[in-house]
Each structure stands twice: as C-alpha cells, then as structure tokens.
Design a protein that fits this description.
Blueprint: H1 17-42, H2 47-72, H3 81-98, H4 100-125, H5 130-152, H6 161-181
C-alpha cells in the first residue's frame, strides 16, 4: 500500500496554507519590530507614541494568533526571521528619526500593502478554511484602521512621501515573496 498523495501541489490552484500562515506570521512579527523601533526613537512621552502603542498591541495579538496556528498545524517559521527582526526594527527607527509624520508614512505604506496581501489570501481561500478566512478578515480590518490612522496623522505630509511609500511598499512585497518560500 502506497502513501496517499499530498493534498496540495504547487500550481494546482488551491491555497498553500503553510506558506500563507508562515508569511502572515512573519509579517505580523515584522510589524511588531517596526513599532518597537519607532517607539524606541520617539519615546513614551511623544504624542504619536500613544497611537503607535495601540497599533503595536493589535499587531502583537495578530502575531500571537499566527504563532498559535503555526504550532497547531506544525508549520515552520521563515528562515528569514532574524532578518525581519533587524530590518523591521531599523525601518521603524529610521522613519521615526525622520519625524513622526515619516513614522506614520511607514505605517500607511506597510498597511496598504498588507491590505492587498490579505485580500489576495481571502480570494485564494474562498470557502475553504472559514476560520482562517474570518481571522484574516478581522486582522485586515484592523490593518486598514492603522493605515487610516496614519493618514489622518500626517503620513502624506512627509517630505518625499510618494518615494518613501513606494520604497517601503516594494520592500513589503519582497518580504512577502521571500517569506512564503524561505
């Protein structure tokens, strides 16, 4: 008797759940590191820090959820985890060093890309995995709230906003592509 064939193969049109959860966990981890870098630079007394702390707590809850899913489903994390640790922190710190509006620009750029990413995942899931789909939809709504908060707090007033946003968004797309595979 031979082993059953795998239920998913690349290119068969079905969602690759391990890659999906792996990249979501990596992204939420990166977000917590971005906010940690921003808070380290701005400090607890800066008016923008309250907003960032609120968003960071939501990202931590997202991360905890994906961490739990990875354990339950025996999914390995990305091997790039140490890179996202450093890159996320320094992206947050660098944008906060430019100023609070640049920190908000970073958030707006990241969350714009994450909204697209989560929409693609929800489309790929369809009616499969309704619990995962509901979790992604809930987190996507919070990510959009973060983006809107950042825009309301001066993200677009940052000098060079279109370029800064484009660079950060490209970095997010690269991180997503790499974390799915590595």
């Amino acid at each position: 008797m031979s082993a059953a064939p795998p239920r998913w193969r690349p290119g068969d049109g079905r969602a690759d759940l391990p890659s999906m959860i792996r990249v979501d966990q990596a992204g939420e981890y990166g977000a917590t590191r971005i906010y940690a870098g921003q808070l380290a630079v701005l400090g607890p007394r800066h008016p923008t820090s309250r907003l960032i702390e609120h968003m960071a707590l939501q990202e931590k809850r997202h991360l905890d959820t994906f961490d739990q899913m990875m354990v339950e489903r025996c999914i390995r994390p990305t091997a790039l985890h140490p890179l996202w640790d450093v890159a996320g922190y320094w992206l947050g710190a660098a944008t906060a060093l430019i100023g609070p509006a640049a920190a908000m620009a970073c958030t707006a750029a990241v969350e714009t890309e994450i909204d697209k990413h989560y929409s693609e995942q929800r489309r790929a899931l369809g009616d499969d995995e309704p619990d995962l789909g509901a979790t992604i939809a809930e987190f996507q709504a919070e990510e959009l709230e973060h983006r809107d908060t950042a825009l309301q707090h001066g993200a677009e007033s940052t000098f060079g906003y279109p370029v800064l946003s484009a660079v950060i968004r490209a970095g997010c797309r690269a991180a997503i592509a790499l974390s799915k595979r590595i």
